[in-house]
Amino acid sequence: MPLSLKLGPGIIGNMFDGIQRPLKKINEISYGFIDEGIGLISIDKEKQWDIDILVKVGDKLKSGDVYAEVQETNIIKHKIMVPQRVKGEVIKVKENGKYNIEENIVTLKDGENIYKLNLYQRWPVRKPRPIKNRLPLSKPLITGQRILDMFFPIAKGGTVAIPGSFGTGKTMTQHQLAKWSDADIIVYIGCGERGNEMTEVLEDFPKLVDPKTNTSLMNRTVLIANTSNMPVAAREASIYTGITIAEYYRDMGYDVAIMADSTSRWAEALREISGRLEEMPAEEGYPAYLPSRIAEFYERAGYVESLNGKEGSVTVIGAVSPAGGDFSEPVTQNTKRFVGAFLGLDRKLAYARHYPAINWITSYSQYMSMLTDWYIENISEDVIDLKNKMLKILFEENKLQEIVKLVGEDVLPDDQRLILEVARILKVGFLQQNAYHNEDTYVPKEKQYKMLKAIELLYDNAYKCVKMGIPISQIRNEEIFGELVKMKYNIPNEDLSGIAEIEGKIYSYYKELIEQYSK
């Protein structure tokens, strides 16, 4: 039988290795090391769960139908579904009560076939779970990270690659997305990365409070830990283990986000196994089927209607670790072919302490056109134009930097010097975000929009002054510029009235300046 998972209550809040062995339980048995022959103990067979039975004798059930519910954590209701290729009429059913996952709850009869259903089902990890329909992507995954939500949005059911060399903040970006994205469930796969990074997740997540539910983040998180010192074969399987668990919860109607850190280590495991099997190597020693394996993984993402009619999604966010930051290597290039958003991390930004170090010139998201209606309906009608205007300023500033490096800023005309000043505010005051600051680690979309509007207001008013011939030294008001940069820290997320005060100062200062020079 191919490698299969036990899918049932007891997965959320747990920590497994790449083949679904519970590491907490193994630690109790063998203290820090996995002994040889410890066996596949998987989810807890002994624990008693409070079961609500949803069917009665005589009901007709088919694959995917929900026949019982379990309150798995205080925020996740686990729906027990009829396994694949099973259907029939309920002939026997137990009453609500406490049961372990092995006990038979419902018995079905289909002709001469009798099916005894308990609280779990098995599923092979390499086989995608079936669905009724794929639906168009129309809702964003709100992350609270300004550069993503405003400039490079991720759709629920989308695919994202985060490539970057050592020290550019891949893991930190993944941690931020796992902490603050508005998915119902997070599956965090530590695939071939350092053990201390998984330790950080284990230490941080229980202490953090989910802003949606005001409970511990571990109540909606599954950890798959296959660190660099664990077996290569299990590392190769860990990606599939994570996405199979995600698909299982998607079928219940949940929005699931997968953080795979890092798919490069998974590809290296593929390369090592391929070498042991004496297969013909392709580019850089990777197997020739590397692109199809990467495609198989990312194609399991999507916004779907499951067999029971519930809508759910799996969003895949994969970190890529190209050696030496070389984005032309096979894993990065093949990943780029299959993802809808590419968030390239820049070493120069990271070394300048600009985090998240997402390069706004090389990054892109194909989802903005799909999400336009949602943004207009839920934020503002002008939000897309505003985003494009700010990105244009950043692109122009990037071109001007080449001239500035050669001959200095003073030779530029004032309208171009204004672009440099506004881009500086955008970069430091908007794109840069502090993961360790209470107000700045997560920013609601309303505040993000108002921050951009305030920066736009400054640019429009200052541009009028430039066109009147007012010198840039007069236009640049250090107090106003400083307040715009610091508003991410100084203005609380719950009370945005401070932004209106800054806008009032911008209006009055430039109005006085125009009147003064008009005379």
Shape: elongated
Structural class: alpha/beta
Distance between the termini: 87 Å
Backbone CA Rg: 26 Å
The fourth-level CATH homologous superfamily of the largest domain is P-loop containing nucleotide triphosphate hydrolases
Number of helices: 16
CATH class term of the largest domain:
Alpha Beta
The assembly state of the depicted protein chains is single chain
Helix content: 25-40%
The CATH architecture of the largest domain comes to 3-Layer(aba) Sandwich
Low-confidence stretches: none
- Averaging pLDDT over every residue, what do you get? 93
Number of individual domains: 3
The name of the CATH topology of the largest domain is Rossmann fold
Please provide the count of β strands: 20
Strand content: 15-25%
Main β-sheet: number of strands, strand sense, barrel status?
Answer: 10 strands, mixed
Binding site for ATP: 164-171
Function: Produces ATP from ADP in the presence of a proton gradient across the membrane. The V-type alpha chain is a catalytic subunit.
Domain ATPase F1/V1/A1 complex alpha/beta subunit nucleotide-binding: 144-365
Catalytic activity: ATP + H2O + 4 H(+)(in) = ADP + phosphate + 5 H(+)(out)
How do the strands and helices of this protein lay out in sequence?
Layout: E1 4-7, E2 15-16, H1 23-30, E3 49-53, E4 60-61, E5 66-71, E6 77-81, E7 88-93, E8 97-99, E9 106-110, E10 113-117, E11 121-124, E12 133-135, H2 146-151, E13 159-163, H3 170-180, E14 185-191, H4 195-204, E15 221-226, H5 232-250, E16 255-261, H6 263-276, H7 290-298, E17 302-305, E18 311-320, H8 330-338, E19 341-342, H9 347-351, E20 364-365, H10 368-378, H11 383-407, H12 414-431, H13 445-467, H14 472-475, H15 478-490, H16 497-518
Parallel strand pairs: 2-15, 13-18, 13-19, 14-15, 14-16, 16-18
Antiparallel strand pairs: 1-11, 3-5, 3-8, 4-7, 5-6, 7-9, 9-10, 12-17, 17-18, 19-20
